[in-house]
Amino acid sequence: MKIKLLTGIVLIPNLIFAQLGSSANTDSIYPAHLQRRVNVTGVFPKEPIKKLENFSISGYYRFITNVRKLDVAYAEQAKTPVNIFVGDDGQIPQLSLNMAGSVSATTRFSTDFYLWTPMMGGGMPENVKGLNLGVSLNGSHSTSYGNFEIQCGGINWYALSPFTFHTNQGYNRYSLFERNPWDPRTKNIDDRYNSFYTQGALNQDLRWGNQAFQGVIFEGNDLPNGFSTSIMFGKTQLNGGMMALPNQSYGGKLKKLIGTGNVTFNSFNNQSYTDSLIQHGVGFNIHTLTFEQTFLGLKISGETGAGRYFSPSTQRGWGEAISVKLNTPAKYTLIPLQFHYFQISPKVLNNSSVFWNSSIREGNTSSNNSSDQIVLAPFASALTQVGQVTNNRKGFEINSEFEVKKFKFNLGYSNSREIENISSQLTYGHPVNGLALSRFWRWGFPANVGPYGNLTKVYRSVFETVNLTDVTPTKQPLNTKYFNVLEVNAKYRTKILNKDLYINYLGSYSSVQNFYSNVTVFTEKAYLRAYYHQLEAYLKLTKRVVWTNYAGWERIIANYDTEINAVTRRPRNQTGYGFATGLDIEMSKGAGLYLRQRWMDYYDSSFPNNKYSGWESTVEVKIFF
Fold first, then answer.
1. Assigned domain for 468 exists
2. What are the pLDDT digits (tens) for 444-500?
3. Average pLDDT value for residue range 362-371
4. CA 414: distance to chain centroid?
5. 378 within domain boundaries
6. What is the C-alpha to C-alpha distance for residues 506 and 502, in angstroms, rounded to an integer?
7. Which of 164, 166, 229, 421 is the most buried (most CB within 10 A)?
8. Containing domain of residue 509, as a range?
């Protein structure tokens, strides 16, 4: 019996395979859609059944390591003067896979899968892998009435208008030396520096100017009579969290083309709750009109509207938000100019817009349960770059770009004042060594750190807070604050031994004082003066190698109407230096090696504990596929 059973087991498969070799028997055993794939080796198909169209996988691998040695350090960092770190402490994944495909001619889906090893000493549990932006479903449909598109789920990068849902894009006056995690791949190794010289801007990814939004976004374009629209409902980075309380954001726009321009109604709103009975609502509303029109070569554009913040303890009503820009060609003003007037009420709050909150301290509408600061922008009266506006401020800006032979200039001027005397604090940044300084605190975004508890870490930077002393007994400021900023970006391209050389200078001269001034105040009459100088040189050594160099100097000086040190009896008097060199090396068309070596020195002659010096080395390998 056992012999017969064994014989059957051996013979039956052979009989089946023999039958599969006969086309007559095949038709009687298998469905028609499988017949063409049947062969003498079995029913395993040689080619997959087509279920998806245009499926693709792309992404990048990024290895980055950082070594820092401090000869002089803050007390927190002096415990480990030599620090070696592998990975990006900005929570940027080391491996990201971008997968996308079509389920039909008009419907697509996409997702980002990431791997990240933060190496915090937690072993296997910290070897994170999961969804980065989540699964997004995008669908589109075209009709004779217009084109319609819907984006669902995941995290989508989107923008409405500057005052409603947007990020500040500035005026392209920034340093190129430090690489950003999101810097895209370029065709040539020096495209980053050549584009900045020739076009005044860099290639950016889809996050540039957009905010992250999770939920549903519906768009209708090319509608009858020149209309288009969008509607969004879901969550921003200030919503969500692990709490079960309802919290969401919603808004949209309706746009109408008019001649050579357009008019758009925009709205964005946030609603959260602070109690389980859903009785105490916290949030904001803002509604605006944006417009753009050109006549006689003059372009006028802007946004105007009203907004408010509400909470159980704050009900200040509605305030105005105004931004108007006039662009004039060179034939009217010798060089092209842009005039910008802005006025944003202290009553207006929107943490998803281009302006910072400087007036409502509780203006955090997030339900995230975190020990870190949530609103990652300086609160109080901030010294800002030209183009970065805050609420509780009004003023004007003038910007221009022009060429003089091989020199290209990008100039900016800002003159503004506070609308109400609210804050008795000033904030300012440290751009020369800002990225290296932010790495002193590896995880999270802590506030009130440093030797005097006045430093706050934000993403890839740090800002410092200084208290005013000309205040009332209840710490209310006595005087209105006025701000002046002058920025200069000069670019030059030449050749050395037939090698391309790019030279960039970035200078900033800022002051804040208790009186109006037409220009930056360079005397002790100013509460605070901040001067930043950054000089960069990029030499293309070969087709695949660029030698990068950087030198920076910053000077921050306060007067005696600000806090003084208890020992020296003097206000802030800070000096910072940064010198760096490096190489950009193209290893292949999709892979680059980036080396950076920085030497830094910083001290405050009035606050003796506020000093550090040392060096930092960074190695980055980024591979796109």
1. yes
2. 788 889 999 999 998 889 999 999 999 999 888 999 999 999 999 999 999 999 999
3. 45
4. 23
5. no
6. 13
7. 164
8. 175-202+399-611
Q: Do 563 and 466 touch, CB atoms closer than 8 A? A: yes
pLDDT tens digits, residue range 509-538?
A: 999 999 999 999 999 999 999 999 999 999
Which of 25, 49, 73 lies at the terminal end of a domain, its last residue? 49
Provide the residue type at 352 as one letter: S
Instruction: State the DSSP string of 63-100.
Output: EEEEEEEEEE--HHHHTSSEEEEES-TT---SEEEEEE
Place of tokens 């900033």: 508
559 is a domain residue: yes
Number of domains into which the chain is organized = 2
CA angle 604, 610, 613 (to 5 degrees): 90
For residue 173, the one-letter residue type is: R
Reported as half-sphere exposure (CB side, CA atoms, 13 A), residue 481 has a value of 29
**Rg of the chain (C-alpha set):** 29
Please answer whether residues 456 and 487 qualify as being in contact, where contact means their C-beta atoms are separated by less than 8 angstroms.
no
Place of tokens 């910007």: 399
DSSP 8-state symbol, 315: B
The helix (run of H) or strand (run of E) holding residue 191 is: helix 191-198
More confident residue, 278 or 508: 508
CA distances from 50 to 107, 293, 544 (A): 16, 50, 41
- Over the range 303-324, which residues count as b (16 or more CB within 10 Å of their CB) and which as e? bebbbbbbbeeeebebbebbbb
214 contacts 153 by C-beta, under 8 angstroms: yes
Compute the distance between CA of residue 186 and CA of residue 582 in angstroms, rounded to an integer.
Answer: 18
Mean pLDDT of the chain: 85
Cβ proximity of 612 and 602 under 8 Å = yes
Q: CA angle, corner 553, sides to 548 and 558, nearest 5?
A: 155
DSSP state of 185: P
DSSP summary character for residue 397:
E
pTM here? 0.85
Asked if 417 and 562 sit in the same domain, the reply is yes
Tokens of 264: 């758009």
Q: How far apart are CA 452 and CA 297, in angstroms?
A: 54
Do 68 and 616 contact (CB within 8 A), yes or no? yes
With contact defined as beta carbons under 8 Å apart, do 616 and 600 qualify? yes
More confident site: 289 or 96: 289
Residues whose CB is less than 8 angstroms from the CB of residue 125 and which lie 6 or more positions away in sequence, other chains included: none
Is 313 in contact with 333 (CB distance < 8 Å)? no
Phi-psi region of 312 (alpha: psi -120 to 50; beta: other; left: phi over 0): alpha
Taking the CA atoms of residue 201, residue 207, residue 211 and residue 215 in that order, the dihedral angle to the nearest 10 degrees is: 160
d(Cα 170, Cα 155) in Å, to the nearest integer? 24
Q: Sheet holding 425-429: strands in order across?
A: 381-382, 425-429, 461-467, 455-458
Shortest CA distance to 106 belongs to which of 67, 147, 70, 69? 147
Write down which residue in 49, 66, 84 finishes a domain.
Answer: 49
H/E element, 301 = strand 298-310
- 403 and 547 housed in the same domain: yes
Q: Give the residues across from 57 on adjacent strands.
A: 99
**502 in helix, strand or coil?**
strand
Closest CA to 625 of 175, 99, 231, 147: 99
